[in-house]
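4.2 Preliminary Data

To establish feasibility before requesting continued support, the project team ran the inverse folding procedure on a target of 398 residues. The structure was first converted into the token representation described in Section 3, and no sequence information of any kind was made available to the design step. The complete token record follows.
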């Protein structure tokens, strides 16, 4: 790669992750391809270039090393495989995750949201992350798989062990201990799903696992490993992403009372607000790809074998694609935000995610009066997936 490619701001640093838009803007304007600090891997930031990469899987491949240490040495399906195999899985899964199918889950997911909000509504404050943003998507996941809600705390524990093992390990600085926690959690999740497979083979239901056990590709049933690898990815892809989106969106609303008021005055603005906050906050900052052939892009020469990051967050505020890109406008027309990615790997769970978010926004603003961040507290964001770890909210008791 050309040696004059500049180093990017460290967008994975928690300080930058708290408010990354200025760094994105510099990258989009001044260095459409830059280098990751520490790893030196290239980052592509302009909308047009990111979309090109997402749409050309033969050049920008998703088939990369399986997540060793996650309790599996096989690729996650369908995220870590390329077409044509990936297309076959998507043809099978897409109808099952359609907008209309996801609406069938809405009543039970709404009931979960109401129940959780009711616990703290009269208290006048809550720890938004712990009491809502983390457990709510987890309960939605239990509804999706037809699992008992009593398994909530077990799921939260398994999920943390795999996604945030440092929060579970006794010493978070002991890398070996952290890796062991992660590997053990991976094995535990696989064992949980193996057990569920047995149960659903004996007693099929109208849920995702029973569907996977009956599903066929090219006239053949999915193997046990395929069912496991699909289920495992659902857990990794479907929980923290929604948690992060809720955290980023509510931190924004809590600090922008005039925008909050717009939603309170007219709930029909909620859908537009969700799309705009997905664009502006882009909780999944970027997606990785493996370059399969040398290519010129964004004024830089990239080489086969390099790992590259497609920076969705920066693309989403690229003024070449979005008018008034730095204005957060809940009524924005033609919002082609790519917080769910694009091309063949575009998020399988986007309809489920949008429904969860809409239900959360509606139920929250129906029950909770004007809210803000507790005085003296500062939200803390993680890098990579922008989860807000500290978000104490307060409101007047009515
Ligand atoms: C607001 C919440 C969410 C965001 C921001 C989000 C974001 C993304 C992004 C950016 C990708 C593309 C990855 C890539 O190109 O490599 C993706 C893929 C995926 N997402 Fe989501 N996601 C969300 C919620 C969910 C949910 C709720 C589920 C399922 C329960 C889910 C399941 C998946 C799966 C299975 C893939 C892989 C699709 C494939 O490779 O064909 N996501 N998501």
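Position-by-position output of the design step:
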């Amino acid at each position: 790669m050309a040696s004059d490619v500049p180093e990017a701001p460290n967008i994975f640093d928690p300080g930058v992750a708290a408010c990354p838009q200025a760094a994105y803007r510099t990258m989009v304007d001044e260095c459409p391809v830059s280098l990751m600090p520490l790893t030196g891997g290239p980052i592509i930031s302009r909308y047009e270039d990111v979309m090109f990469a997402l749409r050309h899987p033969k050049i920008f491949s998703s088939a990369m090393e399986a997540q060793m240490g996650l309790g599996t040495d096989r690729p996650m399906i369908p995220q870590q495989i390329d077409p044509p195999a990936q297309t076959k899985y998507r043809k099978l899964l897409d109808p099952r995750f359609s907008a209309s199918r996801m609406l069938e889950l809405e009543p039970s997911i709404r009931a979960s949201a109401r129940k959780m909000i009711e616990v703290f509504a009269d208290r006048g404050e809550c720890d938004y992350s712990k009491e809502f943003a983390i457990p709510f998507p987890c309960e939605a996941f239990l509804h999706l798989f037809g699992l008992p809600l009593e398994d909530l705390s077990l799921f939260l524990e398994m999920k943390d062990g795999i996604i945030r093992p440092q929060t579970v390990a006794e010493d978070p600085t002991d890398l070996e201990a952290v890796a062991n926690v992660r590997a053990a959690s991976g094995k535990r999740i696989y064992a949980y799903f193996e057990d569920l497979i047995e149960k659903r083979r004996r007693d099929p239901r109208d849920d995702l696992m029973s569907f996977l056990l009956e599903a066929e590709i090219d006239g053949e049933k999915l193997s046990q490993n395929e069912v496991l690898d699909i289920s495992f990815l659902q857990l990794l892809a479907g929980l923290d992403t929604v948690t992060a989106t809720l955290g980023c969106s509510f931190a924004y609303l809590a600090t922008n009372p005039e925008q909050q008021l717009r939603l309170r005055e007219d709930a029909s603005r909620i859908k537009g607000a969700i799309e705009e906050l997905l664009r502006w906050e882009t909780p999944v900052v970027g997606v990785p790809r493996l370059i399969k052939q040398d290519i010129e892009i964004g004024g830089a020469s990239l080489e086969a074998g390099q790992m590259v990051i497609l920076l969705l967050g920066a693309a989403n505020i690229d003024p070449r694609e979005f008018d008034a890109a730095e204005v957060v406008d809940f009524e924005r027309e033609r919002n082609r935000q790519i917080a769910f990615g694009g091309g063949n790997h575009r998020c399988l769970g986007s309809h489920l995610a949008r429904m969860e978010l809409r239900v959360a926004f509606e139920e929250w603003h129906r029950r909770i009066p004007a809210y803000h961040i507790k005085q003296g507290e500062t939200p803390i964001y993680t890098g990579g997936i922008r989860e807000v770890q500290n978000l104490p909210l307060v409101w007047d008791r009515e």
